[in-house]
Design brief:
Length: 282
């Protein structure tokens, strides 16, 4: 596996792959890799000739009071995991390489899809995401890019700017990877104490309860959101950020649920903010 740390290195690597007629799959990550990330890598491996992963904690998607400095960084361990799933190259730049002095260009997705859910709670977050993903897709000359359903709103935003800006890449959304107990895999799970990790199981449990109600015929959005909220309230450590249901992938408001309804939640367990979701048909 090649380690690429400069813009020129990844450009040269991608150019050589294209010269050989190979397809390129990109998996953007911020590192602290877990099984969820490796699932994305395997999907990319199955679809593409060359797999490039990025490991870059992107400063522009963190707010001033968020966990940029504390975000886990473990590049050596990440490389071992990437090699275990046959990734061909990893792009691991310094922030100054991606955002050099004088940098002043950003991709800003306007409209309702960025003003709800995590976008409402994290102003500027999706501007940072859209900017870095645009740069990574262009640098890697990616034919396919892979993202997890846990960040379903992010996938909608990325698909929106890819279409609007006529970027020639296909965006793949891969189902959420979960631990055996149901907890959605996340790099931020490393922040949780054993007691907090046990408490965090309430996220998947609450979504499972709503999905069961939907399967039994409940279609009222307010009722489904109420089921999730009531279940979350049973856990003293849980502090609800949001519980919302929208049509997916449009993220338009609904009064009645359908099979394409996204039920999404954000909850703080202690100081750690976790997100999870279900698509009711899945």
């Amino acid at each position: 596996m090649e380690i690429l740390t400069t813009l020129q290195a990844i450009k040269d690597y991608a150019a050589q792959a294209k010269k050989q007629g190979k397809s390129i799959g990109l998996v953007p990550t911020m590192g602290a890799l877990h099984e969820g990330h490796l699932t994305l890598m395997r999907e990319a491996r199955a679809k593409c000739d060359i797999v490039i992963a990025s490991v870059f904690v992107n400063p522009t998607q963190f707010g001033p009071n968020e966990d940029y400095d504390a975000y886990p960084r473990q590049f050596a361990a990440d490389c071992e995991k990437l090699e275990s799933v046959n990734v061909d190259a990893v792009f691991h730049p310094e922030p100054a390489e991606m955002y050099p002095e004088g940098y002043c260009t950003y991709v800003n997705v306007e409209g309702d899809i960025t003003h709800k859910l995590c976008g409402a709670q994290r102003p500027g977050h999706f501007r940072g995401v859209a900017t870095v993903v645009t740069k990574l897709i262009n640098l890697a000359r990616a034919d396919e890019a892979f993202f997890g359903q846990k960040d379903a709103q992010q996938v909608t935003v990325i698909r929106r700017f890819v279409e609007d800006l006529n970027i020639n890449v296909h965006i793949n959304m891969v189902p959420i990877a979960r631990e055996e107990n149901g907890l959605a895999r996340s790099s931020r799970n490393t922040y949780l104490s054993p007691a907090e990790k046990e408490a965090a199981l309430v996220l998947s449990r609450s979504l499972k309860a709503a999905k069961a109600a939907f399967a039994n015929g409940e279609r009222e959005i307010s009722a489904l959101e109420h089921i999730v909220t009531e279940e979350l309230h049973k856990e003293p450590m849980a502090n609800i950020d949001y519980v919302k249901a929208y049509a997916y992938p449009s993220l338009k408001p609904l009064t009645e649920a359908s099979e394409d309804t996204l039920l999404a939640i954000a909850v703080k367990i202690g100081k750690t903010r976790l997100i999870d979701n279900v698509i009711l048909s899945a």
